[in-house]
Every structure is written in C-alpha cells, then in structure tokens.
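Give me the fold.
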Amino acid sequence: MMSFSVALIGAVIGAGAVPTAPRGFQAAEALRSAGVVLIEDVPLKDFEVVAQETWQAAGYPGLHVGDYNSMGSVTRPLVSENVYDVAAGAPKQLPVSPHSEQAYLFNVPRFAAFMCIKAAEKGGELQLFDNVQLGRRLGKLMEKFSRLGITYYRVMGDKLRSANWSYPTGMWQDRFQTDDWLLAKKKASENLAYGGAELREYEQGLVVMNWTVPAVTFVNSSTEVSRAVLQSILDNHRSRNYAAAADSSAATAALHSTWGDGSELVQEELQRLQEATTQSLEARQSFEGKQGDHLTILTEHQGAVQVPIVTHYKHLGGFITKSGSKFQEIRIRAAATMAKLKPLRKLLKSPVLAIEKKRLILQSMGVSVLTLHSGTWFNLTQSEFAAWQAGVFRTYQMIQPRQEDGQVPHTQFYKLASEAGLPMPMELLYIQRLKLLFHVMGVQDRFMINGILENHEVDDQCSWLYGAMKSIKWMRSQVGNFVVPEELDELQDVATWDLFAPHAKKLQQYLKKVQKAHLYKIRALCAVKDHSIRQNEILSDMGWTFDAPNAELGEEEAHRCEVCDDVFDTPAALAVHQQKRHGLRIAMRRFAIDSCCRACGRWYHTRSRLLRHLHVGNTECWVWHCRRYIPMTVEEAEEKDNEDRKKGVAMHQKGFADVEADKMWRPCTEMELMDRLQCRDDAVESSEQVTESELKQWSQFGMLPPGRGGRMKTSRRATEMHMFNVNRDIAMLENTVLKDVGRWSPDFSWVPRPLSCGTRYFLVLFSGHRRFADIAQQLSWKSNIIPICVDLAVDPWHGNILRDTLWLQLIRARKVAGAHAGPPCETYTFARWIEVEGGGPRPLRTTSEPWGKDELTIKEVEQVFIGTILMLQAIYLLLLVFLHGGSFSLEHPKGQGGKDGKWSIWDSAFIQQLLLCAEVRRVDFLQGPLGQPFPKPTSMLTGRLEKFATLLFDHYQPNWRPTDRLGGREKDSKQWKTAKAKAYPPLLCKAVVEAHLHFAETITCDHEEPEPEGLREALQALAQPFDPYSMDNKGAVMGADYWGRAVNGI
C-alpha cells in the first residue's frame, strides 16, 4: 500500500457528513451539495489546480486562489514549493486548540483547501467543531463578539534593536520586505486582508502590529440563517499561548488578543469561551454516532452511498489496514502458503524425491503464494520483518525430512535457503521489489511513476522508491556495476525512468543471475560453517581442548509459581502457566458484562476488547469498576466467556470472526452507559491512589492488572532488527573462528592408531593431467605404495573430489599412508593484484572479505565459490588422513600475509588453527631453483613431514637465475602466463615424495581392514602408470580446470 496526498476542500463553515469523491465532476457536485469534499490521490504539484477547478465547477467560476501565507500573521517555514508548515514554530507535542482558519481575516473567504502530504506518526487527527453550536452556547457573550469584534496583536523583532528575537512572527523588515519604517507602516495600513493594520513601536526594541476583525459571520443552510463565531482567541491570548513565558509579566508575549475596543478579556469570559469550545467539539461525536461507523461517498450513478469504516479490508488477495501495517498481510500470506503446502508435506519430506523436484514444488506452490504483493511492501517495521522472516523459514522448512523419532531437525536459516535453492528473506523481498520496479519502468505508466516519485518526495526513507533503490544497490553487490550501472541510483529523477525503459526487460532477465549469485554466496557460507564444525570435531578427536568463554549470567530473575514451585523466565510466562495449569483468571472478566467501559464512556464492540482495555490498558478504568460495582459470580463470568468462544472473539482466539470486532471504539450512548452490574453500597468515585487493603480485597476476584497489584510487568528489551547479510556474516564467521584459534590447546601426548596392514595408498588430490616425473610416477618408482590421482582431468567421475564417499572409507580404514593437495589457486593468487598492461583479472578476496568480495560478476562469484569449496574439501581430506595416522602436504601460492588487504589461504583461521599442532609446519620456498624459469613463491603446509624442508633445499639449483616472469598474457596469445606455472617441476615432486616416504618408513601396522567397495574400479580409472604415448598426455603443462561443472553437478 502506498500513501498518496489527500486534499480537503470545503466552505469555511460546514457541517454534516464529509463526502469522498474522485477529482472532477463528482467532486464539484459534492462540494456544491454538502459544502465540503474529500478528494483522494491528488499529487502535490496539482493541488492548487484541483482546488481551483473544483470550486469553480461548483458554481464560482470567477473565484481564484488567494495567498494565505502573505496574509498570515507569522512566518511559516517552507516545506516545499508553495507549501508551508502549519505549526509555524509551535512545539510538535503541542495539540492545536480549536480555532477558525479565517479568524484573522477581515473578509471571510468562500472556500479553504487543505492538503495532507504526510500522515503523522502518532495522532494528527482533524478535530472538527461546530461554529454555529459554539455561538449558541456563548449566550449573551455572542452579542459582545458581534458588537466589538476581536483585535489580534503580533509582536515582531527589529534587525538592529532586537536581533535575538526568534519567535516565528519574525522581523518587521522581513515581514514587510523593506527597511523603511514609514513604508512598512503604510503597507500594514493598506493590507485589505486585515482591513487595515496598525504598526507601532513597542518595548525593548520590538514593534507590534494589531488589527481588528469581525468575530461573527452568517451561515446559510437549507432551513435557516445562523450566526457562527470566528475565533482564535484562546491560542492567541497571552495567558494561554505557547509563545508567552510562564510569567507573562516578566517576558514579552509574541501573541495576544483583546476585544475590538482594546479592552482585555476577563477570566470569566475566557473560561466561558473554553467551555463552549469544548462543548462544540461534541459535534464530532454526534456526527460519528449518526453515521454509525459509515462514510458518505458520492457516486456517479447511485448518488450518496454509505460505506462502512473498518480497520482493514481485503483487495485482490491483499490485506489492507487503516494504519498501513503489513503485519496482518504477512501473516495471512504465510498461512495461505502453509495451507497450500501441508497436503504435499509427505511428498516434500520424502527422502526418495529428488531435491530438484522438491524445489520446483516449493517454488510453484509455496513461494509464489507467500510473495504475492510482497513487491509493494516497503519500510517494514521490526515486528513485520520478524513475521516475514518466520513465514519464509516455515516455508523453506517444508522440504526438511523428519528424523527417525519424527522430529524436524533444527537447521540454520542459511542451510535451509541453500537446500531450498531460494534467497534469504530480505533478498527475496528485494527480488520481488525489483520485478515490480522493472515492470513499471518498462510499461511506462506515467500516472504510476509520478505517484511513486510524489510518494518518495513526501516520505523519503519511508517510501517504496527508497526501498527500490536499496534493492538496486543490493543487486549491484551481487553481480557488479557492469550489469547494474550507477545511473540506476538516480531513480528519484524521472529522466532515469525514461533512460532505462528500453532496457527494463533485460534488467528483469538479469534477476535470475542475481539470485544465482546470491545462492552461490549462501552455499559458500554454509560450506565454511560446516568445515569449521568438521575441523573442530577432528581436532577434538585428536585430544585438543577448547577453552570456551564463561557465559554471562542473565540479569533477569526467575519467577516461581506459588502453587507448584515451577520456575519461569518472565512474569508473563508465569501468568500463562497459572491460567492454564491452575485455572487462575483475570479479575476484570467478572466486571466486563458487555462491551462498554462505563468509566471512560467508550464502546469497544466486543467483551474481549474491553477486557484488554481494563487489564493491560494504561488507564485507571479498572479501579473505577472495582470501587463502584459488585462483581459477577464465577459462574456468570464463565457463561460470558462461553458466549465469546461461540462468537469466536474470546481473548485466546486468534483474529476476530465477528465483524463488530473490526470497528474502532466509539462513544457510548446514554442507554449503554446505564449500570448493568449491582452497585456497591459504599461506592465512591475517587481519584485517590489504590490502597493495599483494596488490592488485597480485589485480588480475591482473580489476577489483577500487571504492575498495578497483579504480577510484575514483563520488560521487553529493545533489540535491533537482525537482518541476514551473507557477505557480512561469512566475514564475521571467519573473524570469529580466527579469534577462537587462541582458545584451542593441542594434546601433545596424542598418538594416532597405526595404519592397517596390507596395501597402502597415497592420494594425489588435484593431480592434473599425468606428466612425466610427477608425484604419482615418482612414488611408483621409489615404493610399493599405490598413488591415486584424483582429478577430473584423469577421470570425470571417479576424479571428482567432491564425490568423497570412497575416499572417506579408504582413509577411515587406515589404508592411506599420505596425501598431497594443490587446490586451484586462481581466486587466491597474488597475481590478481599485479597491474599488467591491458588490464588483468581483478582481486576477488581481501582481508575484510576473505571468502569473496561484493560487486563481482556472476562468473567471478562462481569462481570464488568453486575455489572455496575445493579448498575446504582438500583441507578436510588431508586432516582426516592426519587423524588416521598418515602424512599430508598442501601446496598454494605464498601470499602476502594480509599486507594491504591481500588475503590468501595462509591467512585463514583454519590454517592458523592447524599450525598450533607441533607436527604441522609451513615451509616457504621458490619453485624457480627447482626447475622453473620464473621464481613463483610457494608455501607448503606439511603434516608429519619433518624432513621436507631439508630435502627440498637439497634439490635447489645454486646457480639458478630467472629467465621469465609471471603476470599478464603471453605474446600473440590470449593465454595467461600463470597457466604454465600450474605444473610442478620434477625436483619439487621428488622432494615431496621423498619426504612422505621418509615418514612412511616409520609407520607400524595394525590388523588388516577390508577394502571399500568400488575401490578396484576407481583404481582402474585413477591409478594407471604414466604412458607418454597416451592421447590424454599433455606433456609438462597442465590443461584447463574443469571444476565448475563438477561442483555445480554435486
């Protein structure tokens, strides 16, 4: 629901119903017949035109618009063009006293037009009072008003003599736009709006302007001519207006009012005027009573139609409330989604049905219902967003299979979204909002676009367009500014809508890529989280201990039930327990015999709403009832409760089935206010504080109101709205794990179980194409350990490291003597930070965003995701080998140690955690002296390879000099120079193998374990000897990586 401006146009003296009509003929007819009309959906820029055309069509073709501000008696701050602040400097919390808008004018205008640009956050209702009724209630004082009129005074400052004057009456030089005193006096005397005003010098360097206007006018109706009072006396008199100090004798009052002859209004006259004004406000209550909660709408074909006033209504499947709240709409969307999905619950939770089909059903049958109209929502409150988040969570949870005991597993939101293949709650709203934005942009509905821009100008950060611009920024953070140019940020300019209108359909198509990029990031976060848990479990199995910080004790005291001694966290929880378990009821139910509060005179339509008013309201109405009436018996109160249950409006029932419960409270009639309960003999109407003896007596009727004789009030702590942000949360997760590294303590006495007897294997993860003198061939030459080259380049099925069931079984059978991994480094490498001619690939990771930066392209997001998944899988398998008695080595580019934001895997919390182990070391070296033409700084993480550094540097060529450098592209080729650095030089492979074999010689064996099923088939594909004549042989250079397809396949 979007808020648009509303215009109220009417005669200056009007009574009766306020009809609502659309702009044009119907509005003019309503104004002609009723004297007032409410016109909705009036843009700010058209306000003056609509007002003038309406009253001219209503029978006053020569009537034009006057300038109220130039006639006003104070300087009003400019809100926008030709729109002024009506408060004129008054404090925001000060209520506006009843007054006539035309009270200051000598000639009464025929019509006045008002516009509501932005609804007040609290209050702000228009108080109408009957000027004719006011005149009748003044009695003889009316004759004095008619005879003398009223004189108004405005004290103004002088720029030279009283420069510190700050009240909005301003300076006389600004008011009359001249520094000439005589000219200013002339302008005041010639002002026809005031009928001529007098400007004269006043005390303390100030000046005063006063003018006298009539206070009585005549009102024509169909039956009679009546007199009405035009006054703004009370809010101008120095004894009452906010511009005067508390001690008016000691300070100058900027406003004042007297009789037209200059005599002061005495206290009795002011008091009489106050009483008559208050009584005239009853016209509003009388009007509401006559209307019966209906509003008169003038239609073209049926004339005046009575439309009921409700707090909400349904329209095109949406749920629109009077306050603009989206809370009920969100709850209804969530309930409708559950109603659609519950019949499919067994199918969705079935482990047999493929996840792709589950996602398709969830999207088509559930999310489509949940997101209906959600693109129009904006400026959600904390409670609204919490309800939306809960609805999305329950929807995603529908595909979660139950555990063996029938319970639904507790799964984090990110994990649910990853399995559902759908965005997080706020991102889901962003996508729906963007769909609507691009649709409106493409259709080019000028009325809709102007309304959106008008709403944004009025509501700013509370507008729908502001939310749409936030969605644009989020879209850019997912796929980069190449797809989402920065010019789209200027949506408040209509030219931007015109500029991107031809591209709206293309932008809408990009939303699929946006969602895909977002899901990649969610999957990456889940992978990092899962790896953290797995690594901690392995370290715990190795005897490591974690020094967890002491949990801070809660500040809230426990609340104990006096009947059964059960303890509860909050007083509210205790009260629910007492009501359900022990049958305790609130005392006020024995005083609520109908829907009428006879203390404040309000009719609440249902008894349950009256009970809320009495039990948890902020008034003392409950005290009034307890002191005045004898309560109903328990049986009588139970009978009333049963009646409420049958109607569906009991306090415990959700929603209100009765239409009466949907109406606003109204004043009670005299008949409704009559006593229906028996009055106490000692009944008194006292405002004295409740005594302890009274509370003790009333507590026998039931539970008294919270904080006022009953239980303590439950204090709710103000909490910030928690919104998921995948980039922020994955960075915070990395920082949390990094901070916890220092809390881990290795067990240096832990000794792994020996390997099993029989054949032993060595895993070469990410081996690449088989090459001469690679690690596998070196191992075959020097030992009887069988190398297994796990890489897609060797076999597309068995070589996929993510299909790890076989390798996990082999490792846990203690048949793996060692493992080496060299995961893809293209997203981690320092080469991305090197500036090359023609531009090179940009950095994808930084110290602040280690697992992927914002504003990457969809291709880069996918690269980062693949690099993250493969790196974590490699560390996991290597750590399992280490746990089961083997050795490991992990190779990767050296990195910069986090300098200037350059992050590498060696800076990660997982590597830092492993380095706490005495048998795990990091060795830095150059590959150049081992046979490469370029230096290529490299690091190797080793486990149980104490001889690796010695063996490595023994193979260094002492006279080596670099003949090439990495960075940029090859000449006359599109290939990057770093491609040729993927393959290890033979001397590096030899050092790695020698180090692993040195450890393997020290390994003892235990009893033999059976080989996992499927191992023979995998060995046939992955453990064949190197054949230099094979068609798959790529020589000394590794081929391209194929991991993207493999990761997405898994």
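The two ends are 43 Å apart (CA to CA).
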